[in-house]
């Protein structure tokens, strides 16, 4: 039964949805100051959706036209694109490199002027002649448009990737055949043994440009950029790339447009809870029963029809893993390939993190080794000091003076948590690069609401997108309606972020999204796990105890990364600066909470590694038992040590390295007002749920 409550101003937040009574109550009962102000604004009816601001050169919005388009038409961007195209093109084009060198600057400046003035018109690729005159024509025509295409893709690729789902794998940064195969294996191992294979009839990119730009506008609000893309598509300049004449290793606007145009279909299938993988036009859907196969086919056909597309009817196959089938060149059976068999090995050495959580333990160093003694003084662990990069001490664990000095001298982070798992603090040695000038600049930034707002908006946007990513990977058919409903609500909240004029409004919208997200996530855990929603201070159940403990560890990671980046963790961007908490660390954590902690906790609950028996009930709440903490720590470290690519542009490494890299980018965004900060997303990190 739905209880509809009329709240003044609420229709401005979610014009196409209504809130259920218990959900609305949860939203309106938030306790922080910013959320309280937002609650009062909602109740009073004073909340007004601001008029959309026009795109102008003085617009400071992170996703404004000036940011994206100017990055495309800068001489540096065009020169980089020219070098990349000249390197990737066939021999005929590379032979012209020497001739082009003499007038490259003239060529690039003329191209830039044409783009800025709107005079740029691509040339059609058909009807080129061979011979010396044809070679010159190829240089002046083909190269010119390829440079523009490369510059556009470089500017929008990561933004476009952020609005796509986690189930499409072709022609995306860091996502390829191996990742798609691993996802199919994960679905099989989760019990989805009935398989539907299908192929989408993908038209030429020019026919998909309107649908693609509709999706792209969610992250790139740049009319001039859209106009350039339309010109390339209109002239047929993308067809050669779509036909495969482009270098396989180079970015391709045609493939990007195809993925964007198919994103609404991907969203429909993921939101419905189907095990769905798409590689270009090749689709595989894994379900637990035959009836679900038919439902999946019906939904796929309906979604494609809505987009003016269709399946190749002779390419539809219903089969099971018992029978075996081939997808993306891999033979699948009930046992092969094995989970993880296709993962590449990486040269990077895994981070060695030591967790000590038994009360009365003592950590000290002796003869080049780190030793952990029990309360009786009996050594429980002895490992080489050089193998340790981080110490996490929970509860009443003592640290000797020698171990403290060694950690400070060698840049080994030591994080202190309470026995309940709350973050207490950490040792920060001389490795911190904070300078007086940077601290002054950071403080000035933290005090300026208008400077903070674009970055704060980007942080909230990244968090909500990653929440949608987690729900898409976690949803199941039994909960398809609720998952789809909440994902649509979260996407609606993302659109509302552009209208928030203060960080308080952003925090209010973030609170609304988090309540929606956790209400849905709580329905996706096993039935014997009590998880009615997010509860803190204290946690009321096993799932919340695990989330709180994981967030505390992640907070320590974020503080250490900020100190290494030369930032003061107390000076926040989204969260207000205060002496009582490391506000900037909470900002940095936001995008990583769903990807690293939430996914880990749900995976542990679903695989029964974390069970109700691991909850320790006390008078004031529920906390993880010692065994529960060990299980969570192991799962958390498995996640943090996972090598991912594509989550951040041009960067690959473990999730822990991503946190540190993101802290460096955050420092740059704070210190350089013109720099556009980008957030991480799911990348190619394989995660079984």
C-alpha-based Rg, rounded: 27 Å
Count of helical regions: 25
Q: Could you report the average pLDDT, rounded to the nearest whole number?
A: 79
Shape: globular
Read across the widest sheet, the strand sequence of neighbours is 2-3-1-4
Biggest sheet, open or closed, and with what strands and sense? Answer: 4 strands, antiparallel
Structural class: alpha+beta
Helicity, as a percent range: 40-55%
- Counting structural domains, the number is 3
Low-confidence stretches: 1-35, 45-66, 91-102, 125-141, 239-250, 341-349, 684-689
Q: Distance between the terminal alpha carbons, to the nearest Å?
A: 30 Å
Report strand %: 5-15%
Q: Give the tally of β-strands.
A: 18
Plain-language structure description:
This protein has 689 residues and is of the alpha+beta class. It folds into three domains: 70-332, no CATH class; 353-427, Ribosomal Protein L15, Chain: K, domain 2; 436-671, Four Helix Bundle (Hemerythrin (Met), subunit A), CATH 1.20.120.920. 50% of the residues lie in helices and 12% in strands. It is built from 25 helices and 18 strands. The strands form six sheets. A four-stranded antiparallel β-sheet has the order 2-3-1-4, sandwiched between helices. The model is unreliable at 1-35, 45-66, 91-102, 125-141, 239-250, 341-349 and 684-689 (pLDDT under 50).
Provide tags for this entry:
Four Helix Bundle (Hemerythrin (Met), subunit A); disordered N terminus; alpha+beta; single chain; disordered C terminus; 50% helix; 689 residues; Ribosomal Protein L15, Chain: K, domain 2
